[in-house]
Amino acid sequence: MTIEVDTSVVRGGGEASGQLAADGNRALEYFDANIDTSQSWVAGALMDWLLAEHSSFAVQVESGLLRSKALMVATQSALDDVAQRFDDTEHDAQVDVRDLFADLDPSAATVPLDASSSRQSLAFTSPVGALVAPESSLADPAFQVVWGVINWPDYLSLSFWARQIINGVIQLVQPGWTGGQDVFEFLAQKISGDWDKVALAGSAFGHMGEFFAELSAAVQNLAVDVFAAWTSGDGADRAGEYFAELVAAFAAQPEVYGDLEAKYTNAAWAAFGACQAMLSAIDALVDAVIAAAMGVSSVAEAIAALFTLGGMAPAAIVSAVIAAVEAFSAAWGVMMTATSTAIAAGATLGSATTAIEFVPLPEA
Questions:
Q1: What distances in angstroms separate CA 184 from CA 58, 190, 280, one per listed residue?
Q2: In angstroms, rounded to a whole number, what is the distance separating the alpha carbons of residues 100 and 8?
Q3: What pLDDT score was predicted for residue 315?
Q4: Looking only at Cα atoms, what is the longest distance across the chain?
Q5: Cα(236)–Cα(230) distance, rounded to whole angstroms?
Q6: String of b and e for 94-103 (b: at least 16 CB within 10 Å)?
């Protein structure tokens, strides 16, 4: 029996595999550009705890990307060799190509892919289309507006304005110390961590998961095209099993990358919440001290004092109003401290309990 093989299609599959290997290179560049492999980048005791395994995660991710590239290079080589062998023997049925395709998962009896296998839908013309610039939910303009509205009583707080003055002086005297960042946030981040960098890393992990999902689908479509032109023989069966296991290996990656995205995003929110809780607590304490120094110990007492302003001197009226505002600011600060603490606690729990279990890619 003669096995008819359209070697031009098989060679086309080899070229497509080479392109996917090049996409692996671009994924490595994306990783290098968006995820610092050192541990120092997360800066902060909270991040040091939540992301203690960051360096290990980075090594695993880089290894997976290198293996995915190597697997596609090996696939290109195997398909090119298949085409060459069949060309050399004019489609002789005795041509043996089984040796060109390894059993990537010897522990499983995998159903081979063939021409009847379903094609997968693709969101991008190339898997690297998924590797868009990472984005931070904490830097989202809508969130910034909402958070600013929630914190409107800051503009009534003497402690808030005192912090602004101190920060302004420091930026004038020593502008390079914090890199232009608010000095109080800068100091708080030394304890909590740099939430923006962590959130961006989480987003990058998520996009890399999308890359692997697209890569899996692209490889399956490539295989379906190849087996439409190479329909029979032991070699085709072995190659079909190889492709099925390759697709499954890539398809298993997005889940762990989704876990990485969740772990880092939650860690970022934990750092943000912790920082805001610290700043709100400081403001609340200072405002409460100012109000107490002016003879007011609670919002209720301040309101009661306002109702007696009629018989007071102008200076006393001003003092009473300031005391009332400070008492209100202190109470609001306590509420925001509790809110921020709840955000930090919930996000910390979410990050700490997200276990990362990598699914290793097979050796090429």
A1: 31, 10, 11
A2: 18
A3: 47
A4: 113
A5: 7
A6: ebebeebbbe
Residue 90 sits at the vertex; the CA angle it makes with 85 and 94, to the nearest 5 degrees, is 65
Please give the distance of CA 104 from its chain centroid, rounded to a whole number. 29
pTM of this prediction?
Answer: 0.84
Where are the alpha helices (H) located in the chain, listed in sequence order? Answer: 7-34, 45-50, 54-89, 141-150, 158-173, 183-192, 195-228, 234-251, 253-293, 299-306, 314-352
Q: What span, in angstroms and rounded, lies between the C-alpha atoms of 187 and 181?
A: 10
Which stretches in the chain have pLDDT values below 70?
A: 1-3, 38-43, 90-94, 291-329
pLDDT at residue 133, rounded to an integer: 95
Contacts of 29 (CB under 8 A, 6+ apart): none
Q: DSSP string spanning 278-330? A: HHHHHHHHHHHHHHHHTT--SHHHHHHHHTTGGGS-HHHHHHHHHHHHHHHHH
Distance separating alpha carbons of residues 315 and 151, to the nearest angstrom: 29
For residue 266, the number of C-alpha atoms closer than 13 Å in the C-beta half-sphere is: 20
Instruction: Give tens-digit pLDDT for 32-61.
Output: 999 877 656 666 788 888 898 998 999 999
Q: Which amino acid is at 104?
A: L
Rounded Cα gap, residues 276 and 262, in angstroms: 21
Q: Which of 79, 105, 75 is nearest to 7 (CA)?
A: 79
pLDDT in tens, 121-169: 999 999 999 999 999 888 888 887 888 788 777 777 777 788 788 888 8
- Whose CA is closest to 220, among 228, 209, 210? 228
- What string of DSSP letters covers 4-53? -B-HHHHHHHHHHHHHHHHHHHHHHHHHHHH---SSGGG-SHHHHHHTTT
What is d(CA 361, CA 364) in angstroms, rounded to the nearest whole number?
9
Q: Confirm if 256 and 357 have CB atoms less than 8 A apart.
A: yes
CA separation for the pair 280, 329 (Å, rounded): 10
Collapsing DSSP to helix, strand or coil, 138 comes out as helix
CA distance 289 to 223: 72
User: Tokens at residue 23, please?
Assistant: 């996409």
